[in-house]
Amino acid sequence: MVDKVQEQVEALRRLAHTPLQDCIQCGRCSAGCPVAFKMDLLPHRVVWELAQGNLETLLKATAPWQCVSCFACQNRCPRGVSPAAVMEALRLTAIRQQGANKYDAAQLEHFDPELPQQALVAVFRKFNK
Amino acid sequence: MQKIGVFVCWCGSNIATTVDVAQVVAAVKTIPNVAFAADYKYMCSEGGQELIHKAVQDYQLDRIVVCSCSPRMHEATFRNCAEQVGINPYLVEIANIREQCSWIIKDRAQATAKAIQLAKAAIAKVRFNTPLTPGESKVVKRALVIGGGIAGIQAALDIAEAGYKVDIVERQPAIGGRMAQLDKTFPTLDCSACILTPKMMDAANHPNIKLYTYSEVEAVSGFVGNFEVKIRQKARSVDAKRCTGCGICTEKCPSRKTSSEFELGLKTRGAIYIPFSQALPKVPVIDREHCLKFQTGKCGICSKVCPAECIDYTQQDEIITEHYGAIVAATGFDLLPLDKFGEYGYQDSPDVITSLEFERLTNATGPTEGHLVCPSTGKEPKSVIIVSCVGSRDTSGRGKTYCSKICCMYNAKQAMYIREKYPQIDVTVFYIDVRTPGKAFDEFYRRAVEEFNVHYIKGQVGKVLKDARGGLTVFASDLLSDKHLMLHADMVILATAVKPAAGARKLATMLTASMDNDDFFTEAHPKLRPVESPTAGIFLAGMCQGPKDIPETVSQAGAAAVKVVGLLAKDKLRTNPCVAHCQENICSGCLACEKVCPYGAITAETKTVINLAGVKEQRTVAVVNQTLCQGCGACTVACPAAAMDLKGFSNQEILAEVDALC
Q1: At what angle do helices B407-421 and B441-450 cross, to 10 degrees?
Q2: What pLDDT, in 10s, does the model give residues B537-554?
Q3: Every domain of chain A and the residues it spans
Q4: Residue B223 has what pLDDT?
Q5: Whose CB among B112, B143, B216, B578 lies 3.0–4.6 Å from B648's, allowing a Cys bridge?
Q6: Residue A83: partners with Cβ closer than 8 Å, 6 or more residues away
Q7: In angstroms, what separates the C-alpha of A69 from chain B's closest C-alpha?
């Protein structure tokens, strides 16, 4: 079981491919993030939790789905770490889970009709297999 | 027949644990010419040196090989030891079986085998060593200090007080440097000018000190004990001897739009100006680029109003050539430009300032006469946010990788004096770590929090925007509460990274002094020779060597001065006899050596030489000046004919060593 967690953590780190150990926890990523106010786990914490291997905290977090991939965190990080890459790794991991559909077609009726068609396509690409 | 003695050191357990010293002794005993070999616990100790003395007498040894630590540690020890028993010190060779063997190899058999190899190589070389005698060179009893900030002033005062002549070259029109721009100094909060100006006065009035202000070092040649330096004294357009410093010219100058360098652009100045009120020498300078007289030919008001008639529009730059025994580099620092840090809004809002600009804003002689106001509105701020580590500890390429060291202390200082003078202003400091080691330093920072209610938040500022109300919106993080913050501030102070002053690298090249990747001068040894450059005769003081505060700068300047005085106190210096020489019969006169020589020691001469065919002929050959040559060996590598040879490291000696290894 422990090995499986460790394996998943390693897989996440490989996907993120960013020097987690270089992070000095300055918090500049979280400070400048335009959607930080929506996040349950701030970008600096996302980097920290992956460095620590706290898989459960990471998988529970909804922050990766708030992240808009603007890369401000990566651009401003003084240590060359990319919290955006960790966010992407978390999204990819979720997406690649077989059968774990996050948005069922049956839920379509709840979809806000004001949203553009493209958003609908994106939702299915991101959340469904 | 040569008689070589080989001495193998245990270095306590340092060598003996991984190298079987007895086996090394047994192995070298079989080598021809080795008349004596022994091992000893500490060769550098008195007992070890006595062992050498006794063996030399008992076995009539004429050459010595010591297998021990790096020659940097004890080569001098063993050379002296040999000299005492009548062996030329240059007939001693060191085989480094510690740093290059026992410390890096774990396997005993492997380490022993390598130690034997290294001993064999040293024995092969010592066979070809020739006795060498050091020459002598004179010492010019005058020192040069480059930079007239607190580091340069202190070093010059200490050298002058010891009785030696010293010149200060300062490129600004006045001495004082960065310290003159500061308002107060930590950790005692005394006024910077109050403690600096007496020192500036002392330096300006000292009979042993000569100031070259508005001057720059143009060229340096020569070597330790006798540097020849060309100093460009830029034209002030004012006769400094007659000027009384009344300042009427600076008041009447009609060109007023140039931003003041001393006030960091927070104020304008005339084209003829004195940089600051306590400037020394108190002599104005004409900035020709902004002077109407120089640009349009019309004006000349300063000349008309000058009661001493000392304005001279025809003045030219002057080149002064002077000789010095020693040079102190004290070139100080600049702040990192913030053009790559757009998110802090430094370029967008005048209310986002650097810490140095803040010093001017709170200084009684500054642009606001010491009233803290927002540059945009002229109104007192209600809240101030200080951001630490702007451009420091940054490995991304935008900033500097090092910690600027002084910021944590001046952040606390600035926060405290805002709170003391204006208790109604709210001050918040954002930090990654608060680093305040030093005597009474941490107490100082804690006082800001405990007594002055400065808010310290662990976290950083991510973005600063101008808001609709004319203030600033600051986005930040509070890592201890794990929160994202959106705050309002009227002023943001950026604790900007320091970097070596512009032109430091150009100077280092002239001095042949080495620098690190950040353009800080490197010291000869980070622990044991911290104020000396690896280049003999060049000493270091202040920020040019690395980030440091005023107390440290003053101590380092004092230490550099002592080293200078120690050098100037000598009448003659022993020169290194390991210098290059040219085998004229082989030399083709291509002068590849001349081009690579960093000391200008090689010249071309037309001579009558006997060529390799035994025929007399007249041709150009390279000639090495033995006093200028520092024995770096660059010429021996550049020479396509191997005509250049380095005494003590001759081609023959080196090849013998290589042969013994292969």
Answers
A1: 40
A2: 999 999 999 999 999 999
A3: 2-97, 103-129
A4: 87
A5: B578
A6: A29, A43, A44, A46, A47, A73, A74, A77
A7: 16
Nearest residue to B28 (alpha-carbon basis) of B128, B77, B95, B98: B95
Residue from B332, B340, B452, B454 nearest B396 by CA: B340
Quickly count: other Cβ atoms within 10 Å of residue B525's Cβ: 11
**CATH T-level fold of B4-128:** Rossmann fold (3.40.50)
Of the partner residues B396, B398, B477, the one whose CB lies closest to the CB of residue A42:
B477
The answer to whether B102 and B115 have CB atoms below 8 angstroms apart is: yes
Q: What tens digit of pLDDT does each residue of A63-122 get? A: 999 999 999 999 999 999 999 999 999 998 887 776 667 677 777 777 778 888 888 887
Assigned CATH for B335-499: 3.50.50.60
pLDDT in tens, B213-245: 999 999 998 889 999 999 999 999 999 999 999
Which residues of chain A make contact with B484, given a CB cutoff of 8 A? 30-31, 33, 36-37, 39, 42
CATH dotted code for B580-646: 3.30.70.20
Closest residue in A to B459 (Cα) is A27
User: Considering the domain B142-234+317-332+510-568 in this protein, what is its CATH number?
Assistant: 3.50.50.60
Q: What are the E-state strand segments in B236-361?
A: 258-259, 268-269, 272-273, 285-286, 318-324, 326-329, 333-335, 352-354
Q: In angstroms, what separates the C-alpha of B476 from chain A's closest C-alpha? A: 4
Using alpha carbons, select from B221, B132, B290 the residue that is nearest to residue B537. Answer: B221
pLDDT value at residue B156: 98
Q: Please tell me the distance in Å from A115's CA to the nearest CA on chain B.
A: 28
Phi, psi of B205 (to 5 degrees): -100, -5
What is the assigned CATH class of domain A2-97? mainly alpha
The tens digit of pLDDT for each residue in A68-82 reads 999 999 999 999 999
